[in-house]
Amino acid sequence: MKSDAKPRVYDILARAFAQEGVKTCFALLGDANMNWAARLAEQGCRMVYVRHEHCALAAAMAYARKDGDVGVATVTCGPGVTQLITALPAAVRAHLPLVVFAGEAPLKSGWYNQEIDQSPLITATGAAYHRLHMPERMPVAVRDAFLQARRERRPVVIGIPFDLQGRPWDGPSALPKPARDLLPRTSPMPPHPDDVAGAAKLLAGAERVVVLAGLGAVEAGAGAACRALAAKAGGLLATTLPARGLFHEDPFCIGISGSFTPEVGLEYLKEADFVVAVGCSLAYHAGGGGQLWPKAKMLQIDIDPVAVSQGQEVARHHMRADARLGVEALTAALPARKGSWRSDAMAARIRDSKPDSHAVEVEPGLLDPRRVVEALEAALPQEWEMVNSGGHCSWFFAQMPSRPQEKFLTIREFGAIGNGISFAMGVAAARPDRTVVLFDGDGSLMMHVQELETIKRHGMNILIVVMNDGAYGSEVHKMRSEGFGDDGSVFGYCDFAGIARGFGLPGRTVKDLGDLPQFVAEFAAGGGAAVWDFHVSDKVLSPTMRRAHPQSARH
Ligand SMILES: Cc1ncc(C[n+]2csc(CCOP(=O)(O)OP(=O)(O)O)c2C)c(N)n1
Ligand SMILES: [Mg+2]
Q1: Nearest alpha carbon, ligand 1 atom 23
Q2: pLDDT in tens, 201-228
Q3: Which ligand is nearest to the CA of 396?
Q4: Which of 3, 263, 274, 478 is the most buried (most CB within 10 A)?
């Protein structure tokens, strides 16, 4: 390490980041960020050096969601920045606070090979981009980036030309106050009494109520309040996909509402005449564009209520409030009712029904994905962290009703595959004392399989479960239903156990689900990471796929 008497700009920038309390940074180095990154590491920040910039950002997203603080990643200029473009829109839509330290091409030369106008690329994703071209102001600009990321809950990318980073520091020796000392201390927002009275009147007239909770309810600690409201209204509970598990112990929770709703839940949602949506943005998928509850009026309780979401008119009735305070006030104002939609028979039905009872005969030597998930649900310890990816198989992995919300991580915004392995790394970094289980598809895992090396090198505890149908399941079923061939969507069963071993990790192909308890016990005893490959039949369609593409089901 070269040590000049006079600090460089990158020294001060590293100190500014350290002062923001950055404990972990996901990084891939190049000329335009490596000096800064080395200095940040010297400040005590743990660096997770990944093998693709997309994965640095995606891991930081999961880290931010689990840690509850700002996620930090760093990339070099030009090609380092362009690799971020698939992850950023998801981070924007998932409202994740992130700060990305990106290099920029040097200002001093007339031409630079890796130069590209970074700002429009980044801002096209919905993230903020700030060029930092005045060294003396850079520490304040870093502080402001952290303030902006927290306040707007979105990614902020700062681009700093690397020739400026290498200059001697001529600014003041003291850093500005960190963002956390400046943030406004806000208290939960209570509802207006008129809104409470109006909502209580409406709700009192309803007979089949569903209380639907989203991540806003989770963040506000509104779980118990929602259960009390549903009990008083004699109604049922449901969650969005990211909030699943919030009511895992409640016998009247029908599970996830949306594309992943279990069979029985669909029936009940169809009968609902009133949905109280708590702390959820009413994304299209949460209610199938409203088709899941065709008869229901909707009351939304949220700090930022909306009439229209993702192109659909979603709620006519609103209460602006913190989720917990709003629900508690509504419960208190709701008159006691005589009848109830609830019954013991209903609770028994919810408990005993399979999420999907459709009969399918699978080929010998292949597994039924529904049975794979049942076996995993039974065998995996309750305290392990569960990470979900996308693809057709995600329907099956969503059917794990015994676990609490804080054990799951689901980020599905922007719908890109290939994120699972990065999300698992982000959770493993945020919870180093825990075991993380990633549920992924073969196509999705293959997209960033190089990160197995990162997982191995950093000694992360990650069990990767691959639902291997030898195909892009989401594509193959749709294409078959439209009479197309399998070209480009069927690849055959590649050997993930062998791939894992190539990266120095144990891998196995699980053939008999009866072996799982023993495999889990061995894995738990050894720790580290492993890849388990489950070869499943592509004859088993998720109910969502079956409904949308009935022709494919008959294939
Ligand atoms: C980055 C990206 N590329 C392509 C797609 C289109 N796509 C959606 S699901 C999917 C297949 C995923 O395959 P796999 O991970 O094996 O899961 P499966 O659907 O087979 O269960 C593809 C290619 C996408 N969503 N994101
Ligand atoms: Mg697949």
Answers
A1: 472
A2: 999 999 999 999 999 999 999 999 999 9
A3: 1
A4: 274
